[in-house]
Amino acid sequence: MPDEKLELSETTTTFIEGNQKVARTPSQYEEFIQPCVAELIASIIFVFIGSVSVIENVESAGRLQPALVHGLTVAVLVAIFAEVSGGQFNPVLTVAIYLVGGINHMMAIAYIIVQMIGGLIGAALAKMMTSRAKFANATGAAFTVVKSNDQIAGAVFGEIAMTCFVVMVVCMGAMNGKSKTPLVPFCIGCTVIVNVLAGGDVSGTCLNPARAFGPAVMANYWSYHWIYWIGPLAGALLAAALMRLLLGDEKIRLFMK
Questions:
Q1: Band (25; pLDDT cuts 50, 70, 90)
Q2: Which of 15, 130, 238, 244 has its CA 20 to 30 A from that of 123?
Q3: Is residue 163 part of a domain?
Q4: Is 255 contained in some domain?
Q5: What's the pLDDT tens digit per position in 86-117?
Q6: 217 vs 210: CA distance, rounded Å
Q7: What is this structure's pTM?
Q8: Domain membership of residue 123 as a residue range
Q9: Within 10 Å of residue 150's Cβ, how many Cβ atoms?
Q10: Are 221 and 77 spatial neighbours (Cβ–Cβ below 8 Å)?
């Protein structure tokens, strides 16, 4: 999600120091480097925690355990990183936010790069922490739900629909003037939980290419991996189109202002 600090001009931002709001120009570190570091760390934590939860509980977890782990992790990370980087840690979410005007193209590119690196590091840490037997049994928490061609259509549609849902929640809750809410971390976390519960057995409910890519590299498992790029990207593009054409406020909407 984009930074929600109150902008006084293009280069002046209000910061809270103590109990007072102080207007000053943010440094280059605060404008570019710190947000990228935050996205890197958040991506590492998200993929690490999510992967370990799957690896350690693959035989008994069902859908409830990974749903709660991923959803609650997202909620916490969004809450603590939103004011630093926007708390995105998902390449397709960054694409959608860029398309609705919430981030410039240079930051979007930088975010996507560090998010993918974070996914790799998080998956490597999960491999380091877990036993070889459990890692192999869970295929390193890579997405292995789709095993035949007759499952492809349902999996792709599921990734599109569920990614669209979570991206709309982000955009409506954090960017849209009419529907912004301080409860957006809770809303996003709940959306991830219900998505995993609903679609976990269909596609695995990835929604995030960084979450798919890191474990796939660590386990060298690439079967139907493209689904977890095409599906989430299409879902994010659909959500961005809905915001720009129909759901966005006057600043976001392109037509019928």
A1: confident
A2: 238
A3: yes
A4: no
A5: 999 999 999 999 999 999 999 999 999 999 99
A6: 11
A7: 0.88
A8: 31-247
A9: 8
A10: no
Q: Do the Cβ atoms of 4 and 83 come closer than 8 Å?
A: yes
What's the confidence (pLDDT) of residue 2? Answer: 44
Domain count, the chain: 1
* Rounded alpha-carbon distances, angstroms, from residue 176 to 36, 98, 150, 243, 249: 24, 14, 39, 9, 6
The token duo for 231 is 């599906």
Angle between helix axes 105-129 and 209-219 (nearest 10 degrees) is: 40
In whole angstroms, how far apart are CA 256 and each of 61, 87, 89?
A: 48, 31, 32
Q: What is the amino acid identity at position 180?
A: K
More confident residue, 14 or 58: 58
For the chain, counts of helices (H) and of strands (E): 10, 2
CATH of residue 104's domain is 1.20.1080.10
pLDDT recorded at residue 5:
39
Give domain status of residue 7, yes or no.
no
Using alpha carbons, list the distances in angstroms from residue 159 to 65, 155, 163.
20, 6, 6
Instruction: Give the Cα separation of 141 and 204 in Å (integer).
Output: 10
